Amino acid sequence: MDEHGQHGGNVREMAQKWGLDEADILDFSANINPLGMPASLKQAIVNRLDLAESYPDPEYQRLHARLARHHHCPASWILAGNGATELIFDLASLLRHKTVLLLTPGFGEYRRALQWMDYQLEEYPLVEEDDFRPDQRLLAALRPGIDCVFLCTPNNPTGQLIETSLLLAVAQRCEQLSIMLVVDEAFMDFIPDGVSLTDHLARFSQVFVLRSLTKFYAIPGLRLGYMVSSNTATMARLRQRRPPWTLNAFAALAGEILLDDRDYQQATWRWLEQEQAILTAGLHRIPQLRVWQPTANYIFFRCLCPTLDLQAALLSPDVTTGGAETITPLPRPLIRSCANYPGLNGDFYRVAIKGPEDNQLLLHELQRVFHHG
What we know:
By secondary structure, this protein is of the alpha/beta class. It has helices at about 10-20, 40-45, 60-70, 85-90, 110-115, 135-140, 165-175, 230-240, 250-255, 260-285, 310-315, 355-370; strands at about 25, 80, 100-105, 120-125, 150, 180-185, 205-210, 225-230, 290, 300-305, 320, 325, 330-335, 335, 350.
């Protein structure tokens, strides 16, 4: 873990570093739906507080049945976990002494989960000149000797989607070469017309799709993710290896009811359509930034002032050219530095899309930093 932290959302650490109260920080580093936990789930938890008094069903049958119904597949294709990250570690347990292809930049937990497995790493660099998007050249990298490849769509942190035609071609090549293909779709629910590989799993036994309910439904404290694959033998093997009760009863309850909350889903898509456009346009108007078009609820950009630590500048008090300290308004925006993503450096950042007032505060503070820089 470097000085920026492994993840976004570490408000406590950053508050201590800058001598702030946690309440003084507005967190743009974690990509959580600003609409907050759905009222339907809050009420369900209140109504079922008694669930805390009993062990959950170790098989989580109701949860798996609901997720299977959502994806029109057998329950044997589904494995729920304590967030998608737990499932990444489960998959990594199958890859000891294997050769794994990782696209960089990409979500850091793939590498972290694999580091204990004595695996062989091959990297496929995504480059700025191609907008960090893979193309047909990726197919050539999938050759005999590769045992597994991790893909993330939309990518974290760049927000770029892999074209559906390329994704299907990759799945087909992995099927032919018996390469395990892990496709992380943790942010796909934010894209109402997004094409999920879960719709094609009957054709591909080597594909394992990761999904998350944590971010879309704003339940990072509960945590809930799941994996979908038609490879029932491997899914059963993973299921048998897991310790019991990795999900608490309220997370399981969340998975049983949230997919039916159409009002919340529609409200999220309306919010995102509006605020994504406004915040992206505002960032584009700042000449010191190069901004990539987002697809989900976060925006990736590069600061074109290489000597500036933009995260620090936004958290620290403003100092005028005359040397007099100016008290800046609170809260201070915390953005995600991407310095600890392989393939990136400290010039790259990611910001969550939040509500209108918060987004305007971020734009105002960015303009302040560059104006006084």
